[in-house]
Every structure is written in structure tokens, then in C-alpha cells.
From TrEMBL:
Taxonomic path: Bacteria, Pseudomonadati, Pseudomonadota, Gammaproteobacteria, OMG group
Functional summary from the UniProt entry: One of the proteins required for the normal export of preproteins out of the cell cytoplasm. It is a molecular chaperone that binds to a subset of precursor proteins, maintaining them in a translocation-competent state. It also specifically binds to its receptor SecA.
Gene3D superfamilies, A to Z: SecB-like (3.10.420.10)
Residue spans of biased composition, Polar residues class: 8-21
Alphabetically ordered keywords of this record: Chaperone, Cytoplasm, Protein transport, Translocation, Transport
Protein name listed in UniProt: Protein-export protein SecB
């Protein structure tokens, strides 16, 4: 039976690289960057029939914070209205630090706009739901989001705008 050589000192002595080769993607850290909850019409809003209109907004942004290291922030905002009165507004900024190494610019942009927010979304969704429940409202279970489709819509709108045509207004995610 052959033995494997797992001694890094011997590998270094032979000149072989112990670094993985090719593109690399890794999550370093997830964290809550900011959150807020407002219920401006409480306690009177609790006396109304609970038939809310829910408005939902999603934004992402990314910042390069080091060589091949990026912070991606997913911002979710949920607002419930009853008869034109705001029942609550919940906003969450969840962030992650990601290593994205040796990808071309197109793939880097795609990863930062789709893969990273997809990783952050379940945490953001849970935080929004927790804030809403702590505000004494029924749970708010947000549906999964297809970040690939959102990215494709944004790219198409940017292409249309660049071509001189009017881009359709992006749809709110419900």
C-alpha cells in the first residue's frame, strides 16, 4: 500500500506549490451590518383588520476591501400598509466577506451579483421575519429570490439604455 506524502515541509522543499491553482471562491464571514424596525402607528394599527399590502425592496452592493476580497451587502426592506397607513417597516443589511480569486471581470461581476446575495438571502429573510414577529405582527415569510433572473434583467436594461432605448423600470420583487 502506498503512503501519501502529507508533510508540507517536504512539499515546500521539493518546490511544489501547496496553494490551490485556478479560480477560487470562499466565504470568510457573514454578519448583520444594520437592522431597523419601525411601527409608527402602533398601538392603534393592532386594532385594524390585518389585510396588509406588503411592499418589498431589495438592493445589493459590493466593495473591494483587499486583494481578491470583497464585502457584499444585501439590503432587504419590507413595508406593510393597511389602508394607506404604515403598519411596519423592517430593513436589514446583511453582509458577507468573500474571497473571489482568479476570475475574469465578467465572472467576478456575476459572482458578486448572484452567488454572494444568494448565500446572504436566507439570513436576511430570517432576520426580517424575526423583527416583524418581535414587533407583534404575524410572521413574514419571504419567498426565495432568483438572483440570476434579477441579474439578467439588470444586464438587459443596461444594454437597452446603452443602445439609446428606454429601459423598462425594474420590477419590485414581491
Amino acid at each position: 500500500m502506498a503512503e501519501e506524502d502529507n508533510n508540507p515541509q517536504e512539499t515546500a522543499a521539493t518546490g511544489e506549490s501547496t496553494e490551490p491553482q485556478g479560480p477560487q471562491f470562499a466565504l470568510q464571514r457573514l454578519y448583520l451590518k444594520d437592522s431597523s424596525f419601525e411601527s409608527p402607528k402602533s398601538p392603534t394599527i393592532f386594532q385594524a383588520q390585518w389585510t396588509p399590502k406588503i411592499n418589498f425592496d431589495i438592493k445589493t452592493r459590493n466593495t473591494k476591501i483587499g486583494d481578491d476580497v470583497y464585502e457584499v451587502v444585501l439590503v432587504l426592506t419590507a413595508e406593510a400598509q393597511i389602508e394607506e397607513e404604515t403598519a411596519f417597516v423592517a430593513e436589514v443589511h446583511n453582509a458577507g466577506i468573500f474571497t473571489v480569486k482568479e476570475f475574469d471581470d465578467t465572472n467576478l461581476e456575476h459572482i458578486l451579483a448572484t452567488v454572494c446575495p444568494s448565500i446572504l438571502f436566507p439570513y436576511s429573510r430570517e432576520t426580517i421575519d424575526s423583527l416583524v414577529v418581535r414587533g407583534s405582527f404575524p410572521p413574514l415569510n419571504l419567498s426565495p429570490i432568483n438572483f440570476e433572473a434579477l441579474y439578467a434583467q439588470q444586464k438587459q436594461a443596461a444594454e437597452q439604455q446603452a443602445a439609446g432605448g428606454e429601459a423598462p423600470a425594474p420590477e419590485n420583487v414581491q
